Amino acid sequence: MRYILKRLVVLVVTLFIISALSFIAFQLIPGDPVTKMLGVEATPERIAQLRELLGLDRSVMVRYFEWLSGFVTGDFGLSYSYSTPVSQLLGDKVITTSTLSAMAFALVVLISIPAGFLLARLSDIRSKGKGAAARRALATLAGAVNQIIMSIPPFFAGIILTYIFGLVLRLFTPGAFVSYSSGAGGFLLYLLFPALAIALPRSAMVVKLLRGSIQGELQGDYVRTAYSRGGSRFYVLIRHVARNAILPVVTFLAMTLADIVAGSIIIEQVFAIPGTGRLLLLSISNRDYPVVQAIVVFIASLVVVVNFLADLAYQYIDPRIRLG
Amino acid sequence: MRKLNKAAAVSLALALLLVMAAGCGKSELQAGKTSESPEGEPRREEIFIGIAQDIDDSLDPHLMTSAESRSVLFNVFEGLVKPTPDGKLAPAVAASYSVSETGDKFTFKLRSGVSFHNGDPVTTDDVVYSISRVAGLDTGTPLISAFSIVESVASPDDGTVVIVIGEANIEFLAYLTAAIIPKGYDSQETQPVGTGPYRYVSRSPQENIILERFDDYWGGATDIGRVTYRILDNAEALMMALRSGTLDFCAHLTATQMNELVGFDYNFVVGTMNLVQAVYLNNAVAPLDNETVRRALSHAIDRGEIMDVLSGGLGVPVGSSMYPAFTKYFSPELADYYAYDPELARQLLAEAGFAGGFELEIAVPSNHSPHIDTATVVVEQLREVGVTATIKLVEWGTWISDIYTGREFQATVVGVDASAMTARAMLERFESTNGRNFTNFSDAEYDEVFAAAIASTDDAEQVRLYKRLEAILTERAANLYIQDLCDVIAISKDVAGYEPYPMFILDISKLHFTD
Amino acid sequence: MQGKRNYNLILGAAITAVMLSLILSGLIRTPHDPNKINAGNSLSAPSAQYLLGTDNFGRDILSRVIIGAGSTLYVAAATVAIGALAGMLIGGLTGYFGGWVDELFMRAGDIILAFPSILLALVLISLIGPGRNNIIIALGIMFIPSFARVVRGEYVRCRELDYVHSARIIGTGNMRIMFVHILPNAAPVILRAIAIGFNNAVLAEASMSYLGLGVQPPDASLGRMLSESQSYLFSAPWYALSAGIAIVLLILGFSLLGEGIGARDNA
Predict the structure, then answer these.
(1) What does the alpha-carbon distance between residue B322 and residue B337 come to, in Å, rounded to a whole number?
(2) Chains with ≥3 CB–CB distances under 8 Å to B
(3) What mean pLDDT is predicted for residues C214-226?
(4) Nearest-CA neighbor of B367 among C127, A96, A278?
(5) C119-173 confidence digits (pLDDT tens)
(6) What global pTM score does this model have?
(7) Exposure string for A277-295, b = 16+ CB within 10 A, e = fewer
């Protein structure tokens, strides 16, 4: 319990520092939200006037604490570009990005865990009898394919999926994004392929890790004991090996989830999904600080919280580990 | 044992199949939804328009700055007058107008029966408020700089508005297309209210913006009930949306994209974008302050190749700061003033003391791919004559602050359009003291002719003087003028009524279904 | 089921050797001028003259892939060099001396690592502007904490070992202990971190240039080629495939190589 409390404090402090750093960083960037807003109508007088109106003429510290006090009370400020409250602006985008990340993560788990076990099973050196050699050959081939998939960057995977499923098989229409409010089915379908693009390389990594970890566990004495008690291969694999083999995978999956959230920035670009990532890119170039700030804190919170939960899960699975 | 193996394999395959099946089922469902014109169904009401840029701008008509926002909200707002497809002005919120002999007093009789989207009728107060606001009469800073010459706005009687400006300037009428908005309404930025044929419904950043027919429009209700602009700022997504038939209308396509759409359910209109695309040069920095160098560069540019690469040869070459839609002022022959001649370019460079060439940085806004592509070709062409050019992509905000306002650059590729349908709007930025003279062009003869041109009240004389200004820009090689970019418009075969404007505007009120 | 031969090492070395020799030969000569525009020949399919076809400017894709891969490799190498050197310095000093400075740096590292790397790179690039050198700086900074952490771990482990104690007793200076005694012991771990870092750097560079923040046009870069090719996916799929497969091969080669080296060390 004390450990959890301590971690929570660290978590809040981390987020505080991240928000302060990103706030200050964006004050140092050349370019000004005002010039973009005024466009070709920008004259020195109007720039000064608008800066004053937006409160940009005050010191960074004053503005940061104003932002912070607003933020903790749930007021994220107004977007400069869209003149709408940031919270309202982000609502839809956060749902989209969260759904995309969750789907990608679910796919990683759904694909990699069965595939990892299957591959470990296939490449078990102790398997004998008819077809053992063929199975091992298959395992080697699968391992090679897995290695290649691992090396595909998600955005290239996205382009390949667009080509195959969008252009050739026409299972979805790239660019015809459906927002969740206008149809949950279409929304989920559209996000399926981007989620797959994120999930594929990640799954391959998990498969590799899991296979190695299972093979390591299979060498253990307790496995031999279990066999000698007459357990079938499948039973031993699931009942005894799985629990231990999954441990390193849990940590990796947690890291994966954090990467997925950040990686969605690029995938949203590939599939033209109006999510937080693309809004972030646009807001950075428009110098729309209130939006940038909110998204940075949103993504950082997700990452930090996920890491925290992963630690907890890790402890739960393996009570031997007592951190802190 | 084998069985178990198989079981695992089967379950994995099943999982994958499930994912696939989910995909197939849903897509059929979606396809069924989009092909929505079988007999017996109610008449179609809505059209989808693809736009390649986000409307990340204020929706307040007096504050919005991007061309795309103006094009969309052209359908929501109206001024006292509004532009017509032939480049003239027609009364809108005003029923009629007159300009005094001295050219500095504009009198408007308001149209009766015009109402705002919120149901309120347009009053004289609203008009006075709108013009005062845009001219900054209360604050001292005009929201649109062309209104800085406004001295007073008054209404001598209900239904009449008189605007007095501080100089003789008949062309100022073109700026009175500025939106009339309800007095005291302060939510324009989020929920704009105007008098146009369509009213604003909603916008979702990077996703869409939705307009709906305004039934009480003074000009009569439009045929199309609802318009959704879908934002597809990714060329591939835009093409896919067109190919799948989920869009009814899309402007600003390239010739390559048009070729990929042949055979689909679209009619095409090929026009131009109504802007002057050029490599704009900072005439105040070395070595570009040397006219011989600028002339050398002008000879080094092969417009034909640029247009071939960008649009399969479509587009109209221009030789000065005027585009063809200004039929009255446009001088097509200026485009041939500098023939493509790399040999001559090298000679001129040597003459100017740059036999070994020099380094040139071309800044390009990163959100405009035609300009980036043009710069890419220009860099290659300049390399032929020994000039080492590099491209620096800058964000739009940075372009505005550093290049347009700060004038800290060597060269930049952009398209410049007219903020109003006047020759002056195109040419005043080269007058040496003009606040928007971002190229720092300075020429005594130009300033003199410009002063004469704007003071002139004789139309033929004014046209002659404006044409002379264009010729000066060409002769002095102020910039490396390239073209008015080709603009292909794809319109679904069951939608008709598209009328091109000589400005960056899409009038959806004239569109209608063909059935 | 480790075979007798180290297939990973052989295959990784082969792929990397092919890519490297292409890139190095590209420094001297490419099949065509990678920037030469030919409007009449845009988006032509692979042929004997243009092995991988041409792009929308009529430029030779093969030549651009070669130059682009070289550029990616250069950025990745420079990035890892910055990350590894600074990381070794910080990690070594903090790990060896410990104390509050150590604590401070590790907490700072935690915070940077909590920040999604792509986001951090985006912020840094907005700060210093796009371009090849700036990408190197941004990614380099991003890579420091992970290297520092690895190196620190090794130094913490080694500083209590007997031979370090003995060295200290006979009066060896701290610097000498750090670099002459401990560093060679930490080398295998650092080398593996470099191999992994190299892969991440290739991926990061490709991502940044895909977003248009890396190498500026008209110079070739694999990520940028991929993003440009997306518009022509239907009419010229080979464009996207060429650039994409080049990235995959770079990553695949190095990851196999890294694993092969790892397996050899363990054996």
Answers:
(1) 15
(2) A, C
(3) 87
(4) A278
(5) 778 778 877 878 888 899 989 988 888 888 888 888 888 887 888 888 888 888 8
(6) 0.84
(7) bbbbbbbbbbbbbbbbbbb
Residues facing B83 on adjacent strands: B89
Average pLDDT over residues B386-413: 89
C-beta atoms of A266 and C210 within 8 A? yes
Q: Is residue A318 very low, low, confident or very high in pLDDT (cuts 50, 70, 90)?
A: low
∠ Cα B462 B465 B468 (to 5°) = 155
* pLDDT on residue C265: 64
CA B210 to chain centre: 20
Distance CA B286, CA A164 (A): 53
Partner residue opposite C35 with nearest CB, options B372, B375, B380: B380
| Cα torsion C244, C245, C250, C251: sign | positive
Q: Which of A29, A32, A34, A36 to mutate to test the interface with B (most CBs of B within 10 A)?
A: A36
Size of interface A-B (CB pairs under 8 A): 173
Residues B74 and B84: beta-carbon distance below 8 Å: no
Tokens representing residue C105 in the block: 């740096």
User: To 10 degrees, the CA torsion angle through C201, C203, C206, C212?
Assistant: -80
Phi, psi of B489 (to 5 degrees): -115, 130
Largest CA distance in chain C: 77
CA distance B331 to B338: 14
Quick check: A282 and B206 CB within 8 A?
A: yes
| A213-238 pLDDT, tens digit each | 888 877 777 777 777 777 677 777 77
Tally of CB atoms within 10 A around B152 = 15
Q: Is the minimum CB–CB distance between A221 and chain B shorter than 8 Å?
A: no
CATH of C7-38+48-266 given 3.40.50.720, 1.10.3720.10, 3.40.50.150, 2.60.40.1180: 1.10.3720.10
Contact call for C247 and A263, based on CB within 8 A: no
C 96-155 near A (Cβ less than 8 A): 110-111, 114-119, 122-123, 126-127, 129
Structure tokens at A234: 């499948």
Show Cβ contacts of residue B42 under 8 Å, excluding neighbours closer than 6 positions. none
Neighbours of B328 (CB within 10 A): 13
Residue A189 is nearest to which of B2, B23, B58, comparing CB atoms?
B23
Q: Which chain B residue has the Cα nearest residue C232? A: B236
Mutation for A interface: B10, B18, B20, B56, most A CBs within 10 A: B56
- Which residues contact residue B24 at a Cβ distance below 8 angstroms, ignoring those fewer than 6 apart? A171
A296 to C119: CB separation less than 8 angstroms, yes or no = yes
Interval B218-228: pLDDT, tens: 999 899 999 99
CA A162 remoteness from chain centre: 20
The CA-to-CA distance between both ends of chain C, in Å, stands at 13
One-letter identity of residue B380: E
Quick check: bond before C218 cis, omega within 30? Answer: yes
Put simply, whether B244 touches A (Cβ < 8 Å) is: yes
How many interface pairs between A and C have CB atoms less than 8 angstroms apart? Answer: 108
Listed by number, the residues of chain A in 197-226 with a beta carbon closer than 8 Å to a beta carbon of chain C are: 215
Contacts of C206 in chain A (CB under 8 A): 153, 155
Half-sphere exposure of C112 (CA within 13 A, CB side): 21
Identify the bridge partners of residue B219 per DSSP, sorted by sequence position.
none
Is A203 a residue whose pLDDT tops 80? yes
Q: Which residue has the tokens 């466009």?
A: A39
Amino acid at A295: I
| Amino acid (1-letter code) at residue C152 | R
Give the CA count within 13 Å in the CB-facing half-sphere of B308: 14
Q: How many CB atoms sit inside 10 A of residue A43's CB?
A: 16
| Order of strands, sheet of B411-416, starting from the edge strand that comes earlier in the sequence | B316-317, B480-484, B276-281, B411-416, B359-365, B388-394
Domain ranges, ordered by start, for chain C: 7-38+48-266
